[in-house]
Amino acid sequence: MLCEQKDIVKRWKEYLDILYERETLNEIESNEGETDVEKYEKDPVMREEFDKALKNLKNKKAARIDGIQAELWKESGEKVKNRLFQIIKDTYATGEIPKDFIKSINIPIPKKAAENKCEEFRTISLLSHASKILTKIIFQHIESKIKQSLTEDQFGFR
User: Which GO terms describe its biological process (predicted)?
Assistant: First the structure.
């Protein structure tokens, strides 16, 4: 059993690195013919989408790793909102996600009382609210493209 704080943190880092280890896009072999991503034109992020995603952030939630609560983004002036919109718009257009958007706070939640092994916990990750705005916009774009490609005959799993 680990008692020192630094040892506990180190063990959690090792566990989470293994748990969330994923192939990077460079490691995934291209399966030619399976998908045709280029046929879909990437629509730019519109200000209305940004405003809707910002408005739909839940209030009274914990500040994330950047220390900014949703209410602060919502109540900020137009200059701040315009700057955040530009960052999100540029991020979506280039596909280059700022490091601050990727950082998260991992919170372990025990599956049962009195757990002491990492495997006996669930973890949740708190991403920044700016990142949540971006992911909501991306989700809406993906959902829109899927709806466009479904035929009228598609009934199940719609």
Answer: DNA biosynthetic process
